[in-house]
Amino acid sequence: MTKRSNWSIPYFIFLVLFVVLPLVLVIVYAFQDNEGGFTLANIGQFFSDSDAISTFALSLEVAIENTLICILLGYPAAYILADKKLNRSAVTIVLFILPMWINALMRTLATSELFNVLGFTLGKGTLLFGMVYDYLPFMIYPIYNILQKMDKSYAEAAEDLGATPLQVFTKVTLPLSMPGIMSGVMMVFMPTVSTFAIAEFLTNNKIKLFGTIIQENINSSMWNYGSALALIMLIIIGITSLFNSEESNAAEGGLI
Fold first, then answer.
1. Are 180 and 142 in contact, with CB atoms under 8 Å apart?
2. Which whole-number Å values give the CA distances from 68 to 28, 55, 75, 124, 226, in the listed order?
3. Is 80 exceeded by the pLDDT of residue 256?
4. What's phi and psi for 38, nearest 5 deg?
5. For residues 136 and 72, is the Cβ–Cβ distance under 8 A?
6. Using CA atoms, how far apart are residues 244 and 65, in angstroms rounded to an integer?
7. In the predicted model, what is the mean pLDDT of residues 198-210?
8. How far, in Å, CA of 71 to CA of 185, rounded?
């Protein structure tokens, strides 16, 4: 145990057991039939299942709407928190992060009960409200980190060259904060597509998201089709992650 590399062994074992092995099992089940033979029917079933495709499209729609709302609300909040002139108290930052200390399921149940008490009809509006409430801190925090660490000399140089406050923001602050925005998008968009508990509690199962279909198939012991749906979702998430990574690198490279 004198070598530093030996300390990574427990992490390697954890990675294999709880990340690599589950992914391998998902892939294996996705390409198996009920008898254990190789098949592509599970993948083909998704593309021929109109309900699954429409549910997936709805999940993307809800995820895009939730992400856009979180950006519109989260960026100004992160900007205010990172600006020492606008925010002089560290308590304000804690208040924004505080909801993350509470279990997401408990927050969702509390939100659902609040709507019931107020007499609101559960539907897409309540679903989006709950999504934004649950995921907004995940948008604020990465943007806040980037803005806080940003070199203020760039903005000062732009001001010295005659740039207006709006030009400083659009030409300097916003481009430099793009990596934080991309991180926030990843942390909000991806979980929204795959979630199921929030949709169940905040719509009384009136609206089903893609994660709900996967859960229903797994609970019904339809492991093969459920794994195929999970694999399709993982592939789409992986492709989206690559595009976001390239955009972040391009944004950083354009400022060097």
1. yes
2. 36, 20, 11, 15, 29
3. no
4. -70, 140
5. no
6. 17
7. 90
8. 8
Please state, in angstroms and rounded to a whole number, the distance separating the CA atoms of residues 149 and 168: 17
- Measure the CA–CA gap between 142 and 158, rounded to whole angstroms: 24
Q: Find out whether 71 and 184 touch, Cβ atoms under 8 Å.
A: yes
**DSSP reduced 3-state for 151:** coil
* Alpha-carbon span 131 to 32, nearest angstrom: 35
Question: What is the per-residue pLDDT across 78-112, written as a single tens digit (0 to 9) for each?
Answer: 998 888 777 767 777 777 777 778 888 888 999 99
The number of helices, as runs of H, and strands, as runs of E, in the chain is: 14, 0
Extract the tokens encoding 209: 């998201």
- The DSSP secondary-structure symbol of 6 reads G
- What is the per-residue pLDDT for 68? 96
Q: Which two tokens stand for residue 51?
A: 């309900």
CA distances from 178 to 28, 83, 141, 248 (A): 38, 17, 13, 7
Rounded to two decimals, the pTM is 0.84
Q: How confident is the model at residue 254 (pLDDT cuts 50, 70, 90)?
A: very low
pLDDT in tens, 218-238: 888 899 999 999 999 888 878
Report CA Rg, the chain. Answer: 22
Confidence of residue 252 (pLDDT cuts 50, 70, 90): low
Q: Which DSSP string corresponds to 155-219?
A: HHHHHHTT--HHHHIIIIIHHHTHHHHHHHHHHHHHHHHH--HHHHHHHTTSS--HHHHHHHHHH
Ordered structural domains, the chain, with CATH? 61-235 (1.10.3720.10)
- pLDDT tens digits along 8-17: 888 999 999 9
